[in-house]
Amino acid sequence: MNLKIIWMDFIYSIKGWYRSKGGMFWSLAFPVILILLFGAIFSGIGSSKYTLHIQDQDQTEMSRMFNATLNSTNLFSINVVDADVNVTSFIKEKNIKSLIVIPKGFEQTIQESFLNPSARVDLQFYFDPSEQTTTQVIRSVITSILQEMNKNLSQSRTIIGVREISTITTNFNFIDFFLPGMIGFTIMQGAIYGSIERNTKYRKDGILRKLLTTPITRTEWILAKMLFMMFLAALTTALITIIGVLVFGMTVNITAWVIVVIIATSFLFSGMGMLIGRFVKEEETADTAAGAISFPMMFLAGTFFPLEQMPQFLQTIAHVLPLYYVNEALRNSMIYMNQNESLINGAVVIIFAAVFFISGVLLTKWKED
Amino acid sequence: MTEQKFKCPNCGQITSFNGDSGEVMLVSCETCNTKGRITFSNSGMNNNYAIEVSHLKKVYGDLIAVNDISFSVKKGEIFAFLGPNGAGKTTTVEMIESIRQPSMGSIKLLGKDVETQFNEVKEKIGILPQEFHSFERLTVQETLVYFSNLFKKKGDVDDIIQSLDLTSHKNMLYKNLSGGLKQRVGVAISLVNDPEIIFLDEPTTGLDPKARREVWSVIAGLRKKRKTVFLTTHYMEEAESLADHIAVIFKGKIIAEGSLEDLIRNYGKNSVLHIKKCKNADDVIKMLNQEGYEQVYSEGNGDIAITIDYKERVLEILSHLRHDCIEYESLDIRRSNLEEVFLRLTGAKLTEDKEDAP
C-alpha cells in the first residue's frame, strides 16, 4: 500500500472538484439553497386524517364523552391505549407522534368543580415537535373542544386544561427534521454520481486502462477516492450544520456516531454507484439510472417529509431503502438525542454499506473482457 | 531448454512446458485435455527484442478477434501495426498491455512474461490508450505530475513539456486544449516514467491533418531517444512516414510484415493511374470494368484510381477516354504505396474515407 500515492490522488481529486462549477454547485450550493428555501417556506402539509392515540385512565362516562367528541370531528384515526400501559415507554417503543391521556379522576374533578372553584384537571397531550402540522391540528381541535366543554360547565373558568408534553426534550420544527435528511441526501448524490463518473466516464476516456498499466493498485485508487468522498461528506455536513445553527438557530449534536454513520453512508452510496456503473456502462445512461434510483429514494425515505404523512404501502417501501436508515440514524443522533434509535438505524446503514461496497468492489474491474 | 507457460483457452489452467528455442510443440491441457500448440521463443537468449508475441489469440464467443498471430519488435524501432478499423489492432495491443486477457498465446515485454510478470515491467512501459482523455480539470503540468508520481522512476516533467512543445500550454486545463494538444499531452503522459517501450494506440485518429503531423513529429522525436514505439494506426501515411517495421493486420490475422520497402517490393508490383476530377466518373468506371480493368476505384469528387500492371496500359486507357470524349482535369501515375499493397492483399481499401486521411 503506497500512502503517498493515495494522498497525491486525494489532493488532485480536490483540485479537480474545486474547479468544477457543477461539482461545487451540487455538493455545496444546492443543499444550502434547499435548506434555506424549505426552511423559509415551510408550511403544513395537509393530511385528511391524523393518527391520535388516547389512553383513558378514568374510564367514566365523562371521559368516554370526551373521546366520542374527538371521534365525531372525523379528523382523527383514534387508537385506544390500555389504561395500565406506561405511556412514556409506549411512546418510545412504538415511536408514537401524538397521544392524549385522560387522567384518573377526570370526571370526579369536574364534579368537584361545581363546589370547589379551584378544582381543575389537565389532559396530557404528548406530541412530537417535528410533526408540526399534525401537532398543530390536534392542539387546535382539543382547544376548541375543551373551550366548549369549559363554557358549558362554568361559563368562564377553565376546569379542563391541557398539559403539553413533548416526546422529545427540546422543541423542534421542520428544519430540525429536514437538516439531517439534507445531509444524507447530499452525501448520497455526491457518492453515487462520483462513483458513476469514475466507473463510466473514466472507462470511456481510457483513464482506467491507463491506470491499469501504472504501478497504482486498484485498492490504492479506491481508497484515495473514498478519502475524497469522506472529505466531501465532511464538508457538506459542516456547511449544512453551520447554516442550520446560524440561520435557523438549531441545536445540532455532532457525535462520534454521526461521523461513523456519515462515513458508512459514503461507502454505501459509492458502492451503489459502482454497481450502477457496472451494469449500465454508458455514462449518460448510468446518470439517468442513478437519477431513477436516487430521486424516488429521496422522497420515499423521509428526507423532506415525515413517513407518517405517506400512505401505508409507501411507508413499507421506505423500510427497504438505505437512505431511510441514514436519515433516521442522523436525525435521532444529531437532533432528537435518541441514541438507541440512532444506533439501530446506523447499524443497518453499516450493513447496507458493507454489502453494497464489497459487491461494488468485487463486481467492478479495470480489466477489459 | 526454455520454459513456456500455456494457458488453456477452455478451462484457463496454466501449465509449464520445457523445450528448445524455436521449437513448436503440440500440447494438451492436464485438466480438460484440450489440445493446443506452443512455440518456444528465443527471447531469453536474445535480448534484442522489446516485444515478443507468440500464437496470440482472442476469442469472443463465435468471433475470433485475433487469430493466432506472432511477431517481434526490436528494441529502438518504431513498429507500426497497420489495419482497418475492426481488424484486431486494439485488441492485440491491449493484450500486450495486459488490459485484456488473451485466450491463448504468450507475450513477453523486455523478456518478462506479461501474464505472470507484468508488474515487473510496468515501470518500463508508457501507454497512450485509444481515444484517451485525461482528467478534465487538471492543468497540463498537474496532469503530468500526477501520472509521474505513480511511478518510482520519473522523467523530468519540465523536460517532457519542453520537448513536446507544450510550455505555453502547461497551465491550461486539459479540457480547454485542442484535439491535437490533447493527443500531445497523451503522448507526454506516456513518457513521464522515461519508459523503454511506448505504446501509442491510434494516436492521431480524429485529428485534423495539421495536428496529425504535429503528433507525427513528436513520435519521430522518440526515435532519436532510442525508444521502442509500438504504434497502431489505420493511416497508411502514418505508417509510411514513421515506421521502421510494419505488420499489416486484417480480420485478426497478420497478412504481411516487413519494412516499407520490403512490403512494396513483395506485394506492390503495380502502379496506380489517377484520373482527377473526371466527368461522369461512375460511367467511366463501368466502361473500364467492361474493358477488362478489374481494379478501378472511385476516390470521390470524380477522382478515379486504376491499378495497372504495365505501362502500356496507360496508353490503352487514354485511348478509351479519348474515344468516349471523357473530360477530366489531370492524370498522374504513382508507384505503389501501402494502400495499394493492402488493396492487393485484401481486395479492400485501408482507409474507408479519403477525406479521413491526412
Walk me through the structure.
The complex is a heterodimer of chains A (369) and B (358). By secondary structure, chain A is of the alpha/beta class. Chain A has two domains: 3-42 and 173-363, no CATH class; 50-166, abc type-2 transporter like domain (abc type-2 transporter like fold). Helix content of chain A is 66%, strand content 9%. Chain A has 14 helices and five strands. Chain A has helices at 3-18, 21-41, 61-72, 87-94, 106-113, 132-154, 174-204, 207-212, 218-248, 256-279, 283-300, 312-318, 322-334, 339-363, and strands at residues 50-56, 76-81, 98-102, 121-127, 160-166. A five-stranded mixed sheet of chain A has the order 2-1-3-4-5. In chain A, strand 4 (121-127), helix 6 and strand 5 (160-166) form a beta-alpha-beta unit. In chain A, helix 2 runs antiparallel to helix 7 (174-204). Chain A is elongated. The two termini of chain A are 26 Å apart. By secondary structure, chain B is α+β, with helices and mostly antiparallel strands. Chain B has helices at 89-96, 114-121, 140-149, 157-163, 179-189, 209-224, 236-242, 260-267, 281-290, 312-323, 338-346, and strands at residues 2-7, 14-19, 24-28, 35-39, 49-60, 63-74, 78-82, 104-109, 112-113, 125-128, 197-201, 228-233, 245-250, 253-258, 271-276, 296-300, 303-308, 330-335. Chain B is globular. In chain B, strands 10-11-12-7-13-14 form a six-stranded mixed sheet, with helices on both faces. In chain B, strands 6-5-8-9 form a four-stranded antiparallel sheet. A four-stranded antiparallel sheet of chain B has the order 16-17-15-18, covered by helices on one side. In chain B, a hairpin with a 6-residue loop joins strand 3 (24-28) and strand 4 (35-39). Mean pLDDT of chain B is 85; it is low at 353-358. The interface between A and B is medium-sized, with 26 and 32 residues.
